[in-house]
Amino acid sequence: MADLLQEEIAPVVKVRIGKKSYPLAFPIAAVLLFKQKTGENLFRVDTWMAINSDLKEDDPQRYTFKLDAQEQPEKFLALLEAGLYGGLLLENESATPADIPKVGASVNLSNADRIGAKLVEVLVAHIAQRAKPEEESQPDPPMAESK
Question: 97-108 pLDDT, tens per residue?
């Protein structure tokens, strides 16, 4: 039953690193771990995704992953570790950041694009549907005065 509920909330995304497959997820604990490591907030979509507002909303080229392994390897690895931690929490609620698999040595330029694509997939499922980048968010309507 818990698996069905998880699929309804956000589908489980798995990433293969080396010879092993790992689930990725971004519950609040994983988001906080990323913020602790980088000082940046994943709930701000523009932290990890660039938006070309000249393109239509359904155009796949409108959104691009900003945390490229070649440009920002430390943030890319922090994001991967946070996602792995979130995946661990799906399986074991008492997991700690110390339980995160050490995969850094297995991540390289030959597999970083594939891993990045999986990170985007899980981020969109867990975060992007609930948060809008600042440039696209609409201000709250003014409250009517009561007389």
Answer: 999 988 888 888
